[in-house]
Amino acid sequence: MTNNKIHVIDTHTGGEPTRVVIAGGPELGTGPLAERLGIFRDRHDRFRSAVVNEPRGSDVMVGALVLEPIDPTAAAGVIFFNNVGYLGMCGHGTIGVAVALAHLGRIGDGTHRLETPVGTVAVTLDGPNTVTIDNVESYRLAKDVSVEVPGLRTYVGDVAWGGNWFFLVHEHGETLRVANVERLTEVTWGLRQALWAQGIRGTGGAEIDHIELIGPPSLPGADSKNFVLCPGRAYDRSPCGTGTSATIACLVADGRLAEGQVWRQESIIGSLFEASARIVAGRVRPRIRGTAYVSAESTLILDPADPFAWGIRP
Ligand code: PYC
User: Fold this and answer.
1) Which of 8, 70, 178, 234 sits most deeply, having the most CB atoms within 10 A of its CB?
2) pLDDT level of residue 313 (50, 70, 90 thresholds)
3) Tens digits of residue pLDDT in 258-308
4) Ligand 1: does its nearest atom lie under 6 Å from the Cβ of 92?
5) Looking at the whole model, is its pTM more than 0.85?
6) Is 250 an annotated catalytic residue?
């Protein structure tokens, strides 16, 4: 049973929205966040749809359910979700959650920990809008993997983990501009389907459900620009925190980025994250810095008489 009133704070991080659910979410128990995600998915999936899908949301909306953490010294637990399912981690969403918690006065400047289904991350708040994330360990699983996309061409890219699974492509022949998002969506959606069809997977057989095209920057001082296709076919308006983490892991693996060196990642709409690598016990822990703003604080109402109360689901 879910409450019929849901308290949310909407934020956007570099243009990418996050709807942060503060109260009114389903009861998921007190187990590890990965276990709670399983309960959410198996028993309360319509709540996900109610929060992020039309008519209240849109395909681009990412939800973040704020929960009690297991470790009482952590600030919160959080499960991220979107128009089609659930995310392991979400960088832009984590920045949005930290800004929403600060808006509520629940956290102040300084470093706090957030538990996610794929591990604990640290967030450092530097004023009301600027957040630095110390992300989960990130790594490249495979380099120079060829994938043939029927009707298009063969692409070569890297498979990497940054809190979600990514296929990162540099040589794609596309121009990364907002005016081209339909073409970029066609190419990246084709890549995702081809990866699956050709049995190219992440660790443990996980689907590679985020595709990142990388190209030259437009902003002065930026190092590169990306286009990231998310699992539900929407593109990330932000530079994608987990995608930038996967990029950082690949750059370190190639010897192109030293520990602490700053990498400025521009998004397809021209928003920016600053990223760097920390090396902890020989492993890459990316650090991502970005800004988010609160755009609304509201109550969602689930009216039992509303035929679309639980969202329009495919
Ligand atoms: O910022 O990590 C991210 C992200 C994943 C999907 C959308 N944004």
Assistant:
1) 8
2) confident
3) 999 999 999 999 999 999 999 999 999 999 999 999 999 999 999 999 999
4) yes
5) yes
6) no
* Contact (Cβ atoms closer than 8 angstroms) between residue 163 and residue 136: yes
Q: 6, 89, 90, 147: which is the annotated catalytic residue?
A: 90
Strands 76-81 and 86-87 turn out to be: antiparallel
- Measured from the CB, is residue 90 less than 6 Å from ligand 1? yes
How far apart are the CA of 89 and the centre of ligand 1, in A?
8
Residue in 61, 92, 118, 233 to alter for ligand 1 test, most ligand atoms within 8 A of Cβ? 92
Sequence-distant (6+) residues with CB within 8 A of 179 are none
Assess whether pLDDT exceeds 90 at residue 2: no
**pLDDT tens profile 240-259:** 999 999 999 999 999 999 99
